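Tip: read the tokens left to right.
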């Protein structure tokens, strides 16, 4: 019973860390990465579809993303979708390929991005702590229902705290790497 609660706790905490990781990938650092365009949806025969379903997205060089549509008539909708996604990017097309230059970041923008990174990290940490709180409540209720002893509950709480510390440390290391990446000129 305690093991089941701890297993669920571990899964939920890992998901919280993964959400932070995914949010941090979307923050641009002045380097081209296809992940920047993951959230872009393109109008394709009346339906919004992910960009990767209508074109080949690749990195040309450190400062340029290349988008090769599978259908020539998709060049204009792809450009419009990137502009509409409000990523601060200006796509350029030559009629067959869309190139997205990634502008270098200025100092002020870097600081804003670091604040954003810290905000995502704090949200992730709060989520992890909430999972710990829920797990401890669950352990206490289960103990009262006499599913297991007080000693087992305390061991479970200690284990939940260890998981919390581990996952918060994971979030901190993600943030440290991302900050370094952002502040790198």
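Filled-in amino acids:
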């Amino acid at each position: 019973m305690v093991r089941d609660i701890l297993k669920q706790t571990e899964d939920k905490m890992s998901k919280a860390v993964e959400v932070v990781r995914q949010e941090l990938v979307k923050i641009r650092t002045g380097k081209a990465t296809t992940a920047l365009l993951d959230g872009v949806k393109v109008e394709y025969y009346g339906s919004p579809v992910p960009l990767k379903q209508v074109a080949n997205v690749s990195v040309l060089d450190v400062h340029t993303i290349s988008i090769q549509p599978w259908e020539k008539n998709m060049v204009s909708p792809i450009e419009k979708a990137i502009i509409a996604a409000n990523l601060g990017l200006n796509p350029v097309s030559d009629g067959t390929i869309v190139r997205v230059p990634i502008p270098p970041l200025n100092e002020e923008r870097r600081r804003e991005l670091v604040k954003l990174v810290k905000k995502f990290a704090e949200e992730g940490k709060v989520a992890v702590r909430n999972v710990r709180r829920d797990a401890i409540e669950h352990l206490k209720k289960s103990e009262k229902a006499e599913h297991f002893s007080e000693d087992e509950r305390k061991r479970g709480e200690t284990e939940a705290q260890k998981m919390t510390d581990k996952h918060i440390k994971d979030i901190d290391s993600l943030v440290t790497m991302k900050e370094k990446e952002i502040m790198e000129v």
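The chain is about 60% helix and 15% strand. The CA atoms of residues 147 and 179 lie 46 Å apart.
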